[in-house]
Amino acid sequence: MKRQTWVIVCSLVLAACQRQAPPAQSQGNGSAKPSVEIPNTPEAPPKPGAEATPDAVLAAKETPVEQVAPAQPLLPAGDCSFTLHAGDSPSWDAANIDVPSACAKFTIKLAHTGQMPRWIMGHNVVVSKVEEVNAVERAGIGAGPYRSYVEPSDKRVVARSKLAGGGETVSATFDTARLHSGHFAYFCTFPGHLKGMQGTLTLH
Question: Are 113 and 83 in contact (CB under 8 A)?
Answer without folding.
Answer: no
